[in-house]
Amino acid sequence: MTIRILIADDHSVVRQGLRMFLELDDELDIVGEATNGAEAVALAKELHPDVVLMDLLMPVMDGLTAISTMRREMPGVEVVALTSVLEDASVVGAIRAGAIGYLLKDTNAEELRRSVKAAAAGQVQLAPEAATRLMREVRAPEAPEALTDRETDVLRLLADGQSNKEIARNLTIGEKTVKTHVSSILSKLGVQSRTQAVLQAMRDGLIPPAESA
Q1: Among 78, 103, 136, residue at a domain's last position
Q2: What element of type H or E holds 7?
Q3: DSSP of 155-212, one letter per residue?
Q4: Which range among 44-48, 152-156, 202-206 has the greatest average pLDDT?
Q5: What's the Cα-to-Cα distance from 126 to each of 100, 172, 184, rounded to whole Å?
Q6: Please, are residues 157 and 167 in contact by the beta-carbon 8 Å criterion?
Q7: Are 184 and 94 contained in the same domain?
């Protein structure tokens, strides 16, 4: 199955480089390129990509606003922030907006291709440096609703980087049931994305932080 990718970056050299690296893999198909956040949102609605690689610093509409808009209007599209910026506000902002991952532009080509495939499968992708910064910012809800044993199992497997399909197979339940559990987990933890839920799991000691990458 081919993964459809939209690249959003205001620098043509970056877009060309990403296209060249990603298209070396037959499973990846670049369906469009956007030069700003507003264009990225419009193209995502038109092209229905599986994954959007989103720069954060762009004209017209910045990446954070674009990510938030996409997650609200196109929840089936996974967004990975791909940026040279490693500031706490940017990292936290991207994850809060709903990005499934945060990668730096110095990520090597092989790792980038692997991360795109993983994101398309619903797996959280965080550069180790970003995970470290996010851990400092994770806050537990004031009165969290307790997770069921099964929801805790699902959360641990999410934190282990497993896709919905893998979780369903490991727990011997349907994929739709996994999605229901994930929705319940997000609601109970008071977070907007699986990435935030995983960070919450690390904060609460369900998994060691070192396993987040």
Answers
A1: 136
A2: strand 3-8
A3: HHHHHTT--HHHHHHHHT--HHHHHHHHHHHHHHHT-SSHHHHHHHHHHTTSS-GGGG
A4: 44-48
A5: 8, 28, 23
A6: yes
A7: no
Comparing CA positions, the residue from 82, 86, 89, 88 lying closest to residue 67 is 82
133: pLDDT confidence band, cut at 50, 70 and 90?
low
Region 83-91: what's the mean pLDDT?
Answer: 76
Do 80 and 26 have their domain in common? yes
Q: Is the dihedral of CA 131, 132, 136, 142 positive or negative?
A: positive
pTM above 0.90, yes or no: no
Is residue 34 within 8 A of residue 8, CB to CB? The reply is yes
Mean pLDDT confidence for 144-160: 82
Q: Does residue 115 sit in the same domain as residue 145?
A: no
